[in-house]
Fold this sequence. Notes:
This protein has 85 residues and is of the alpha+beta class. The protein has a domain at 46-85. Helix content is 12%, strand content 25%. It is built from two helices and five strands; from the N terminus they run αββββαβ. It has helices at 12-16, 70-74; strands at 33-37, 43-46, 53-56, 62-65, 79-82. A hairpin with a 6-residue loop joins β2 (43-46) and β3.
Amino acid sequence: MGCCGSGNRTGGTVQNAYRASPKPAQPMRYSHAFFEYIGPTALTVVGRATGKQYRFDRPGARVPIEPADQASVSGVPQLRQVYSP
């Protein structure tokens, strides 16, 4: 009796080719949101949730904001949220 052509494929390589894919990646959670000041001078903002002061010392300054303060800071004129420091 021959060993070839029997149709019985239980070798490791065939079974391993059909492994379940890993869990989908979770969305990234950032420790801070970044805001950029687009006004003409300087600006200090106080976050409503934490009471923390955020200082934008010049036009174009980017400052990390605590996630709890993000909603209140996003309502400040001349600040815009950016996605990198």
